[in-house]
Amino acid sequence: MTRVRVLLLAALGIATALGVSVMPAYTATPSDSGSVVGTVTALGGGACLQLSNTSASFGTLPFSTRTQLSAAQGNPTPSFQNCGNFNETISIAGTDASGANTSWHLDSGFAGNPCIDARGAAQINVYGLEFNAPPVGQVRITKTATPISTYGAGVTTPLALQLDMPCVGSSGDGQVVSFSVNLTAAVA
Amino acid sequence: MRRAAFVLIALGGLLLSGGSAAADRGVALDLGRLDVAQKLTPGGGYRLPPLGVRNPGDEVTTYRIVVSHVEGQEGTPIPADWVRVKPSELTLKPGRTQKVQARLNLPTGANPGHYEGLLAAQIVTKGKGAQLGAAAAAKLTFSVEASTWLGEQWYRIRKFLSGHEPWTWLIPALFATALLGWQLRRRFAFQVVRRA
């Protein structure tokens, strides 16, 4: 009988461990009783970022095929300027593209051919964006902000953009497709 | 589907007037970073210093205040719903500045640790086509500590268990199955035989 109790206790312990590992953390929004943070180090002289030539065109493009990547450079080339007084780290991120009846997923995974992913599987409605800005050269854009480089005060930098079209079979035929490329400046 | 399909990709500015295409759009903040030195506790609400947003461009621009993070940062990304900003969207004429007030609301279930994020004023882009947007950000850092010793230990156990999945549930599950089988064998007798 004692052994049965021990076994039951062990089973209870196991059940508790299982419960702990799968139970989500309890969250609740606190009441709006506001205490002021008195020990904040707030450094003045914030980031400043200015864009010029934000308009460019990629023209009318065919879809990519298994043998031919369809890509185009944006024209004219936009540029950004650190209009602040300090060095700034500039990060870049892109978004998915959408049209009237279409949605393309921004993917940084495909290498040269958007028709096949890294595992060899066919894929559609997947497109790519690349930028070329000194001093880093040609780099793929992801959906998470990724630092490009640090730029000095007053420096103006051209930002060449390249669009890699999705594969034949994707949606969006004849449509204007919208997407964004966002730059974020933070004091280095 | 050998037919070559064509898709028109044009930057939004081209669809607008020629004047706006030539204009400079920009954003500036008056603070570079906000480092909260004191340890914050879950469930607390904290008012941060006001942040000045300036329009350094030459056209009227609308800005949205967002919380984001950068790939590869050291601290845990700050969940966007922990920060409330008033106003969350503002429109400024060229050269004008407006203060926004940010407030940090930590949920009672907030995990202890060091948090890092960007409090950014982002240009609101409008129109069809591709858009190039800009944001100026102040780096925000703070640390959350458990409100009680028990809470700290509870967090550590949870972190250990979630960090060692699937073993933290697979091993107990296998052990429980073996225990159940052993109990069944002790209490019941059965034999598996081939049908004649």
Summarize the structure.
With 188 residues, chain A is mainly beta. Chain A has one domain: Immunoglobulin-like, CATH 2.60.40. In chain A, strand 8 and strand 9 form a beta hairpin.
Question: In one word, what is the shape of chain B?
Answer: elongated
**Number of alpha- plus pi-helical segments of chain B:** 4
Strand content of chain A: 35-45%
Q: Outline the low-pLDDT stretches of chain A.
A: 17-33
CATH architecture label name of chain A: Sandwich
How large is the count of helical segments of chain A? 1
Mean pLDDT of chain A equals 80
Helical residue percent band of chain A? 10-25%
Briefly note the structural class of the backbone of chain A.
mainly beta
Name of the level-1 CATH class of the largest domain in chain B: Mainly Beta
Oligomer: heterodimer
The first-to-last residue Cα distance of chain A is 69 Å
CATH architecture of the largest domain in chain B: Sandwich
Count of DSSP strands of chain A: 15
User: Class of chain A in CATH?
Assistant: Mainly Beta
Number of domains of chain B: 2
What class, by secondary structure content of chain B? alpha+beta
Keywords:
heterodimer, A: mainly beta, Immunoglobulin-like, 39% strand, flat, B: 196 residues, alpha+beta, 2 domains, 4 helices
